[in-house]
Design a protein that fits this description.
Layout lengths: L1 E5 L6 H12 L2 E4 H10 L3 H12 L5 H12 L8 E4 L5 H13 L6 E6 L2 H15 L8 H15 L2 H6 L4 E5 L4 H17 L1
Parallel strand pairs: 1-3, 1-4, 2-3, 4-5
Length: 193
């Protein structure tokens, strides 16, 4: 089973992806984690990515597609995967479709966590306060910019997947367990169809 999770920054995609990974024994791939790992390596590419992430902009498609393509070929992704943070643009979605066709695979589910953006800003502030050592992208100004980028560049992907009959919307404002239940119900409904 191959799943894509969508939603604005702070919507809870990472939390739900971890639960899906545990419940279905498929691999969560967070492009954010992959990119932060590259930044931590302090490689030339990592330093370029760090500047981009700190500004709240999206990393160029070519870099992201290359990271994802390499990662999807690993053995722990053969039973399935959950993409959290990819694709973020229509060209990335098209590149994903092309690479999956090469491997005789496809996307089974595209789930959107819908949330109230004012509450998202409060969530990000709380995450920064709780962690003590906030990520460089955990501040209100960067979040507002990331939300703008999401609406301008990522949200236009939704019709792409809706036209394929894959898109399902989930109320991301409910408690975490209730969001998980909605997602599981969505997966079960499609499996039963």
């Amino acid at each position: 089973m191959n799943i894509i999770l969508f939603g604005p920054p702070g919507a809870g995609k990472g939390t739900q992806a971890v639960r899906l990974q545990k419940n279905h024994k498929i691999r969560q791939l967070s492009t954010g984690d992959m990119l932060r790992g590259e930044v931590s390596s302090q490689s030339f590419l990592g330093k370029r990515i760090e500047d981009i992430l700190d500004s709240g902009e999206l990393v160029p498609d070519g870099i992201i597609v290359e990271l994802i393509e390499s990662r999807l070929q690993d053995s722990d992704c053969q039973k399935g995967f959950i993409l959290d943070g990819f694709p973020r643009t229509v060209p990335q979605a098209e590149a994903l479709d092309e690479m999956l066709v090469k491997w005789n695979r496809h996307i089974d589910h595209v789930i959107v966590l819908e949330v109230d953006e004012n509450i998202l800003i409060e969530r990000i502030k709380s995450r920064a306060d709780e962690s003590g050592a906030a990520r460089s992208d955990d501040n209100e100004d960067v979040l507002r910019h990331r939300l703008e980028v999401y609406h301008n560049q990522t949200a236009p992907i939704l019709p792409y997947y809706e036209s394929k009959g894959l898109l399902r919307r989930v109320d991301g404002m409910k408690p975490i367990d209730a969001v998980t239940e909605q997602i599981e119900a969505t997966l079960a409904a499609k499996a039963a169809a």
